[in-house]
Every structure is written in C-alpha cells, then in structure tokens.
Design a protein that fits this description.
Number of strands: 4
CATH class: Alpha Beta
Radius of gyration: 12 Å
Number of helices: 1
Strand order of the largest sheet: 1-2-3-4
CATH topology: Phosphorylase Kinase, domain 1
Order of helices and strands: EEEEH
Length: 66
C-alpha cells in the first residue's frame, strides 16, 4: 500500500495493508498515529457518486463511529 494515509475525525491513520474487498470498497489495516493502535478501516471510493449515495455513506460512517 505504500505510504498512504487518511484522516478521520481529526486523527491520522497510516494504511498498512488490504485485508479484504467487497462490492462497495475494501477493508484495510490502519495504524492510528495518535494512539499507536491498529484498526480496520473501510475505504469506499466516492468518485462519480450521487449526492444521495455520498450522504448514505456518511450516515453509515457516523453510525459505525459510535
């Protein structure tokens, strides 16, 4: 995966490796730089998606973060 990273709720994660793929995206092993813990992160590309689909994905993310 190289040296990819992403930010979620103001925390930065280093993407380590792909764990699996599905119809909507993939799951990756991610290292949180602030607490040095590993997490599974669902990565969904949103290129050319409708506003409704993006809103649905954001709603799903909020539910999963609780």
């Amino acid at each position: 995966m190289g040296s990819m990273s992403m930010k979620i709720k103001k925390k930065e994660y280093k993407l380590i490796k792909e764990l699996g793929k599905g119809g909507n995206g993939k799951v990756v092993l991610a290292l949180c730089r602030s607490d040095n813990r590993y997490y599974a992160a669902k990565v969904i590309p949103i290129i050319n998606e409708s506003k409704e689909m993006i809103q649905s994905l954001e709603n799903e993310a909020e539910i999963l973060l609780q």
